[in-house]
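Researcher: Go.
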Amino acid sequence: MPEMPEVQGLTAFLAERTVGRTIVRTSVGAIAALKTYDPPNTALHGAEITAASRRGKFIVLSCGDDLHLVFHLAKAGWLRWYETLPTTLIKPGKSPIAVRVGLDDESGFDLTEAGTKKSLAVYVVRDPEEVPGIARLGPDPLEETFTRDVFAGLLDGRRTQIKGLLRDQSVIAGIGNAYSDEILHAARMSPYAIAATLSGDEIDRLYAAMRTTLTDAVAEASGKPPADLKDAKRRGMQVHARRGEACPVCGDTVRSVFFADRSMEYCPTCQTGGKPLADRRLSRLLK
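Model: Structure:
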């Protein structure tokens, strides 16, 4: 799933190539992906793109103040850019293309989604806050206003495992499964630690790990075209999706815990005092 660094990379790429261009056509290949009907997607035709921005994991292409194309790539979505957009017709349900956007210089992009579970979401709105997922976003962890004390306040009183809290978009915007694994590994912290019980030193360590991990990942994604961002993300991972490999910090074997639709990875030596975590969502450390 694209998370904040990759989405920021895509946003910067689109800002360079779409701002100042006019949308000349849109084609919908997956009706279920288009979550709004007023304004219709055809309202974008003839509109000039004036800004590209990121809200959590959402990308917003603004056409002035009153019309915005917003999309969330979800678990299996991606953006495919063309300097010259194909002219072939999109047949609904016959390809992975959910939405195609053509610009006035013949360039454009497809929003695609692989697999059978479809959750890519596209919105045409007058205000980005009309998108429910944006309206309930928590603060962005790379904003200057997101201080250590703000972070500590978000943890205070929450009897929630820290892994789940980091992934909760209503608490902190933009972090998903992969980067929460990386942040916790950098902080040398168990994913099952309870947020409200963290000491001051642990909060310091986790805050620093979060800021450093995300800042470095955003820098790595900067300037890369969409086709290169996924590989750049994989190369930067220390533990996520590296089950069975050696931890680059201590050499222990990276372990996984599997859930219904995802897994998490961690290093026992670095994070759990050498003890493996049981492979059940609510389990404690194995005795």
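Model: The radius of gyration is 20 Å.
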